Amino acid sequence: MKYLFLYLLFWTPFCWGQKMTGFWQGMLFSPNDETVLIPVYLDIFVTNGFIDGKIRIENKEGASVYPVIGKYDNDELQLITMKAMWYYLPEFSLSPYIYTLKYNAQNGYLEGSTDQQDYRFIAYQSIGEVSMSKTAYLPKDWLLRFSQELKDGISAPQIRKQELLNFTFQPIYFDCDQALIRTEYQSYLKELIRMVKSHSDLRIEITGHTDADGSDAYNLALSKKRSEALLSFFAANGLPKDRVVLAYKGEKEPADQNKTDAGKQRNRRVDFRFI
């Protein structure tokens, strides 16, 4: 038991440190000025509570790279930048010297403040390394996209990936001969929208269905109306129409038998899948 305690005592901080180790891509920004977005790339190694690494800070004129050292404890990091090891900007005034950061397990971002001016720091774990090039490490469109994702409340890429793997679809149901979306489904539909908007390469397919009452032609048209109702809802809530694929099957693909009211209700539905 004693050895198990010692194992947990020393192994747990090591595991958390390993989680922080790696390449982080993000920005410095000003809460008071939305136009101030400064690309930041951080590459750190964390072991036994100590941090060693490099940070690259860019602006429209060039970039500078600084060694960083610091301490790590309970998801909190304090980094100190040393004298620039390499720079194209001899007086890079936008470079803070101390970063006080904390990992947010809920959204996957490394967030915090600096000791200079009114800058905030936010970054997500990525793949890469701190570049020594004078030119921008990445095209600046990623920075604008990242800023918009933060405004939309979108989590870091590694969290989004896990959310996608764990996501469970459910159909939504309709009243007889109706294409109106029930209020009870709105929160679920907005979660679908958030999931699609969180992945730039993701689309959603919506497929309308009916029960077997009525003619084939009538039911095909009704299933189309149900799919179109979802398309309109998604568009009204910020999901572009080119991210949605429309399908409708009429009564051809029932989820249950049409012999009972309960079975018919399960057939009056729209199904979803990511593509």
CATH superfamily of the largest domain: Quinohemoprotein amine dehydrogenase alpha subunit, domain 2
Determine the mean pLDDT. Answer: 87
Structural class: alpha+beta
Oligomer classification: single chain
Strand content: 25-35%
Briefly, what CATH class of the largest domain?
Answer: Mainly Beta
Instruction: Indicate the overall shape.
Output: elongated
**In CATH terms, what is the architecture of the largest domain?**
Beta Barrel
Number of helices: 6
- Series of H and E elements: HEEEEEEEEEHHEHEHEHE
Helical residue percent?
25-40%
Q: Report strand order across the widest sheet.
A: 1-2-3-4-5-7-8-9
Please count the beta strands (DSSP E, at least 2 residues each).
13
CATH topology of the largest domain: Lipocalin
Biggest pleated sheet: 8 strands, antiparallel, barrel
Cα-atom radius of gyration: 25 Å
Q: pLDDT under 50 segments (min length 5)?
A: 1-16, 90-94
Count of folded domains: 2
Describe the structure.
The chain has 275 residues and is an alpha+beta fold. It folds into 2 domains: 151 residues, Lipocalin (Beta Barrel); 108 residues, 2-Layer Sandwich (60s Ribosomal Protein L30, Chain: A), CATH 3.30.1330. Helices cover 29% and strands 33% of the residues. Strands 1-2-3-4-5-7-8-9 form an 8-stranded antiparallel β-barrel. Strand 4 and strand 5 form a beta hairpin. The two termini are 50 Å apart. The N terminus is likely disordered.
